[in-house]
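[recover] target loaded
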């Protein structure tokens, strides 16, 4: 059966909305993705990451992080199996001594072979790398593609000068789309009904949210800016449901008495990053990425942003993050989301889940996300791209 982006043509022919999104099992090419936190790669340190199925070698050299494909062009072995760096700016393959420059991927020498016609003429693939807000971003795309500004692949506000960012990352055993839709799902808050965050932060949390019309969603698609879909939590667009019933009998209540209300909006942006504003506190904003590792796993990179006006304020936020927001929000609250994603993975793993799912009215925001992602992505990752 012919494959397109790892999903069969037979299945794609039956998809009514978001065909390219369903095809992107391994993610969207020609986009920036966060790979790790800057603090996790020291000077001269080598790290290996896998993004969209591509194995990448990162090294910090004179403060700057460079990325090359983790595969020797000679016999195809991973350079990371036994990294040998005889000079600061190069790495030599442990097998036959092929030596590549991190800066441009050039085969500059072959250790032990002083002459060869291919020296200076062959390259290993390189990846553009940029650091921002304490994160290392890698551009995964086609060689020769005009690399866009990072601001087009992160949510608005994330790069604001006064926005301090703290976070954590972990590997999740589910496809990135399952993660993204879990985060943007307006009725999935039901799984958080017993969360420690409710009491810890005096949170008003309904059991579900019902959109009252198309005005509940807004699409942002400016040509030179990020592309995303907003779920607007306004009285005229969203109706919170605090009383849960089964056949007319009340069986569960939300927490309407909390003084801290819902976010003003939740939005999701290409290539797969959520912004919850404000959350988990009126002075904070949560940004979280669902980075494809391969077709079955994603990197869940969670961050919380706080506006600060001084080093003292940033230090205070750092303390609050470690002592409160990380254990209570990113772990205590979002652990429910991880559990849900991994439980849903089997349903979508063979791709038939996209045909068998039964959506309902509150899933309108997810449909808008699928449509936007299908129309405005810059390319779908395919088996050929990973080779």
């Amino acid at each position: 059966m012919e494959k397109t982006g790892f999903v069969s043509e037979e299945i794609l022919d039956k998809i009514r909305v978001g065909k390219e999104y369903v095809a992107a099992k391994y993610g969207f090419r020609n986009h920036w993705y966060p790979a790790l936190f800057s603090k996790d790669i020291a000077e001269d340190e080598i790290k290996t990451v896998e993004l969209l199925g591509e194995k990448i070698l990162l090294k910090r050299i004179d403060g700057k992080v460079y990325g090359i494909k983790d595969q020797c062009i000679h016999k195809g072995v991973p350079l990371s199996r036994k990294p040998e760096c005889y000079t600061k700016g190069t790495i030599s393959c442990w097998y036959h001594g092929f030596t590549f420059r991190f800066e441009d991927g050039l085969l500059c020498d072959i250790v032990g072979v002083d002459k060869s016609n291919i020296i200076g003429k062959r390259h290993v693939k390189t990846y553009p790398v940029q650091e921002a807000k304490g994160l290392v971003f890698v551009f995964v795309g086609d060689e020769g593609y005009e690399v866009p500004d990072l601001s087009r692949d992160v949510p608005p506000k994330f790069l604001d000068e006064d926005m301090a960012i703290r976070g954590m990352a972990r590997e999740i055993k589910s496809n990135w789309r399952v993660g993204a839709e879990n985060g943007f799902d307006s009725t999935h808050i039901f799984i958080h009904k017993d969360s420690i965050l409710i009491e810890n932060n005096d949170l008003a949390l309904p059991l579900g949210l019902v959109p009252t019309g198309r005005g509940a969603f807004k699409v942002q698609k400016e040509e030179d800016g990020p592309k995303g879909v907003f779920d607007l939590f306004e009285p005229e667009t969203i109706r919170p449901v605090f009383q849960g019933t089964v056949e007319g009998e009340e069986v569960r209540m939300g927490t309407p008495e909390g003084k801290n209300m819902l976010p003003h909006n939740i939005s999701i942006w290409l290539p797969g990053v959520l912004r919850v504003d404000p959350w988990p506190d009126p002075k904070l904003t949560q940004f979280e990425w669902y980075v494809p590792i391969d077709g079955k796993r994603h990197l869940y990179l969670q961050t919380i942003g706080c506006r600060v006006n001084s080093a003292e304020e940033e230090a205070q936020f750092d303390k609050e993050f470690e002592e409160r927001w990380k254990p209570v929000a990113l772990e205590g609250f979002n652990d429910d989301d991880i559990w849900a994603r991994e439980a849903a993975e089997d349903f979508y793993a063979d791709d038939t889940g996209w045909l068998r799912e039964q959506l309902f009215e509150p899933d309108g925001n997810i449909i808008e996300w699928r449509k936007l992602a299908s129309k405005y992505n810059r390319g779908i990752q395919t088996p050929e791209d990973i080779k």
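[recover] notes: Residues 311-333 form the longest helix (23 residues).
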